[in-house]
Amino acid sequence: MPPLEVLMRLYGPIGAGICAGIALGALLQRFAPHLGEPQGLYQQVPLRLGRFLFWLGIPLSIVGFMRRADLSGNLYLAPVVAWAAILLGLLCSRLWIRRTPQDRWPRPTQGSFSLAAMLGNTGYIGYPVVLLLPQLGVGVFGWALFYDALGTLLGSYGLGAILASEMGGQRGKTAQPRQRQWLARLRAVGLNPIILAFGLGLGLKAIALPAWLDQGLYQFAWAIVVLSLVLMGLRIQQLSSWQHLHRATVAVAIKMLVLPLAVGIGLTLLGVDGPPRLVMTLQAGMPCAFSNLVLAEAYDLDRDLSVTCVGLSSAILLLTLPLWLWAFSGN
Fold this sequence. Notes:
The chain is mainly α. It is built from 14 helices and no strands. It has helices at residues 4-31, 40-66, 77-98, 107-118, 126-132, 141-167, 170-174, 178-190, 193-204, 211-238, 245-269, 274-284, 291-299, 303-328.
């Protein structure tokens, strides 16, 4: 297993950030009614923090970290692996659904189950994990970024949205014509701030910035890592539904055990080792994506199952990380 100091260096900041978010959420839930806005701040703080991170915080942190990341080598492999993992998760979920009586699987439940098995939180939690590990860090951040931006992100709002629209209730399927749905998806992907920051970071990497600006971007990027962990804690604290635990356990097992194991073994057989293999294995084993909750709401999927999968997978992350560090840290 990984040395204790490695786990403490990783778990200390992650645990502190998530616990701070949980504590903040509990305080807001307790005292918000006394501020004249019943549940107002409790709901608005994580919502506004999430918007800030999505539109400004994470994009700027990507630019900051990319200036110190090594973008040489076969980085194109990262999105290829990400898409292979996404498709494997979809295949495993469909095989599991087919082995059980179909009358127990309403289409919205099938959609939420497959999304949970396919898509991981490779941004809000995947970035901090890679950046905080002493054997990884900023130098190999490019692998995590390519996996997330060109893999998970496109998978969520591309294939994930298609699956959700096919499996969802009538509200999501009839809200607008199919042609407009496709245009909306393409626009959402093309204008996504993470994609834009990805291109901006590539363009700025070869440009010499003033030292104060370069250092400021780097320090801001680390502050965003902390805020991402706090947001993770806030959202975990707000999870209230733990129904469908059996189905959620299966989906999480596919997402956090089958996929990273397949990625790690597959890359080893292909001759890929060292930090790139570990980064892609860890990204494949991230908890179920928060974007699943967005898709479940937008397309009228099984919200309870989506919430349960996110909560369960987030809770067991610290148990699965040592397994992948032990199995795939070597050369």
